[in-house]
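User: I'm putting together notes for a lab meeting next week and I want to include a structural view of one of the chains we've been expressing. I don't have a solved structure, so I'd like a prediction I can at least talk through. The sequence is below, exactly as it appears in our construct file.
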Amino acid sequence: MKKIKLPMDAVHKRLYFLFGVVLILIVLSLVAPWLCPHDPNLTDLKLANQPPSSEYPFGTDSYGRCVFSRVLMGAKVSIFASLALVMGTFIFGTAYGVVCGYYGGKVDRALMGVVDILLAFPDMILAIAVAGILGGGLINAMIALAVTGWTQYARLARGSVMVVKSEVYIQAARISGNSHSRIMWRHMLPNISGPLIVTATLQIGGMMMGIAGLSFLGIGVQIPQAEWGSMINEGRSLMQTAPWIILYPGVVMLVAVMIFNILGDTVRDLLDPKQQTI
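Assistant: Thanks for the context. Below is the predicted structure for the 278-residue chain, given as structure tokens.
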């Protein structure tokens, strides 16, 4: 892809626009229970597999439940679970990597050995294994994805700390009598946070897909709780006769993931102008 320098004003405008869109998504997911035209879990077999209509904008599923209402409720689960998961892995992985990079030596080798073991397995395969052992449920799915999600922050933070710890301002902080914890969190962390924030922003969409993937396999969010991945799994056998059951949750999930990915690219462009591309 050809790299073209973008004006910073354009990057800022795009960032504000995307933040506005994300804020709208979050607000919609918060007020979803009041926006649902029907009870998302109410079954009525007489209304099963009804096509989209004025009463049921996205049609009904094989149990007669309103697909539109379930998509709205699924947004709350998918978006907030992904945000919480990214926040948790970001905090833990960053702290882990900063400690490894700062102390180095035996501490670094021992702690990073754990990271190397986890990185030896494909992320999704390991998440499926952990979720299968823990059993179904949103919390267990989040734990399964968190097992591997924090490792990229640990590696990135460790590498960044090893670069900056020899800088003059860090040496000055040591000579001034600052404690180790103050040097790590007050002087180092703010100066390495850019790439970590970019990684976290880009990971939101990936976590959303991960939760949906585990739910699709039946080891994530459990029926009757609405979630986009489980909705697609429920409707896949009716793809030819009632395609709207999987079409609408699939399209909504695609749009949401794209929005968060574009937001991550924009944050990257802002924090690292050398990487700007269109």
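A couple of points you could mention at the meeting. The chain has one domain: 8-31+60-275. Residues 26 and 276 are 27 Å apart (CA to CA).

User: Perfect, that's what I needed.
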